[in-house]
Amino acid sequence: MVSKANPENRVEGNKATVRRMLARLSEGNVGGFTDALAPSYVRHCQAMPPPLQEIRGREAMHAWLLSNLATFPDYREELESLIGEGDFVAWRSRGVGTQRGALGPFPATGKVMDIVIIGMHRFEGGQVAETWTSWDNLAALTQLGLLPGA
User: Fold this and answer.
1) How far is CA 34 from the centre of its chain?
2) Alpha carbons 99 and 112: distance in angstroms, whole number
3) Is residue 92 within 8 Å of 70, Cβ to Cβ?
4) Distance separating alpha carbons of residues 15 and 126, to the nearest angstrom
């Protein structure tokens, strides 16, 4: 257990949690990712369509991740940078996956998406309580052949 008395240990513990979460997600283990989320978890992402810009609750996030893995079954996310301070851990990662299922209104393309993801988690009591994340949706859709290039 990480000591609350030592803020540096808490930050390092939170960073280790983020590493584990991304490793589990890359293994296709959605439960291993969502187990680190607080029951009242909230995810904010303006890169998503309006109904999904805020996902509330561990179960809702679990369902969304399962849906995402149905679309990109080979999805892998590799951590590139990780910074922690206080109750916050920020990261930069690269997400890669082949679109094998529908993406909203778009049918499967069989093409690979390779995106940079930037985000920040806020921890509360050793669990992720809130996340802010973003990526370049235009680049992703263009790579998948769903938007014409510039």
Assistant:
1) 10
2) 6
3) no
4) 11
Determine the length of the chain. 150
Q: Of the candidates 42, 47, 19, 63, which has an alpha carbon nearest to the alpha carbon of residue 139?
A: 47
Predicted TM-score (pTM) of the model is 0.90
d(CA 92, CA 136): 13
Taking the C-alpha atoms of residue 91 and residue 31, their distance in angstroms, rounded to an integer, is 21
Of residues 27, 41, 30, the one with CA closest to residue 121: 41
Query: What structural domains does the chain harbor?
Result: 7-143 (3.10.450.50)
How far apart CA 121 and CA 123 sit, in angstroms, is 6
Q: In the chain, count H helices and then E strands.
A: 4, 6
Provide the residue-wise pLDDT of the chain in tens; the chain has 150 residues. 444 557 789 999 999 999 999 999 999 999 999 999 999 999 999 999 999 999 999 999 999 999 999 999 999 999 999 999 999 999 999 999 999 999 989 999 999 999 999 999 999 999 999 999 999 999 999 999 998 766
